[in-house]
Amino acid sequence: MTGLPWAALAVNAAASAGAALAVLLATFAVARARGLHRLVDIAWGVAFAVVALVSWALSAGHGDDGRRLLVTVLTVVWGLRLAAHIARRGRGHGEDPRYERLLARAPGSRDAYALRMVYLLQAALVWLVSLPVQVAPYVPVPLGPGAVAAGLLWAAGFVFESVGDHQLARFKADPAHRGKVMDRGLWSWTRHPNYFGDFLVWWGLFGLACGTWQAAAVTVVSPLVMSCLLTVGSGKRLLEKQLADRPGYAAYTARTSGFLPLPPRRHPDPEDPRP
């Protein structure tokens, strides 16, 4: 039998929506009390981990146990690592300029605007992007070569994201690098190794949900939405707009791939007389 238990999936979808909403509403309460809405970035990874655990618990008696465990562990590891990294990165800092600019445009109550435009929106995105994590535990197909390939894709993305974040954190920790552009390590091959890693992670999790064509059809929207967010949404596009005026950034973009890792491009030295 390779069909999906649609009634159980509907219950899981509702419970996942409630879990994501609970995490974001709790974060809103804490952020409002502290006057620090950048905390929502920490909640992003935590919410995915909670959805994965809820889906694992509710899917007991359904699907393949190996697939259930694998997708849950991979999602929780990814979500908690991301949350811990963002928490460390933001320690001791004030409000994120992105949220300051957003809330400056609030037509009325800043809290109501933040709740609507940040927290509720992110809860909805967590639910939508996490569809493979919700559906994969119900896929009644044992792990095979396709799942192995998906797991390797996830692993490549996780390593790329983790190493990129670590390299950037070490670079920023050196006072001599203040105001400079990070162009070393993975950052010399792509301007966004962390976003590229996220891209691979979510296509890998989607692959784990592809045990049946029905599951693939239901969940393909997840990696597509995440890819759009990373490349033309709130990820790459907004960050590059913020960095555009930084000294050396134009030269960095001229020699470094915008997303897919590629060898750095070499540009002739204008002072060199050779062709």
Automatic annotation (TrEMBL):
Disordered as annotated region, ranges: 256-275
Transmembrane parts of this sequence: 6-30, 42-60, 113-133, 199-232
Keyword Aminoacyl-tRNA synthetase on entry: no
One Pfam family in the UniProt entry: DUF1295
Domain of life: Bacteria
Segments of skewed composition (Basic and acidic residues): 266-275
Keywords, comma-separated and alphabetical: Membrane, Transmembrane, Transmembrane helix
Keyword Membrane part of the UniProt annotation: yes
Protein name per the record: Membrane protein
Species this chain originates from: Streptomyces kronopolitis
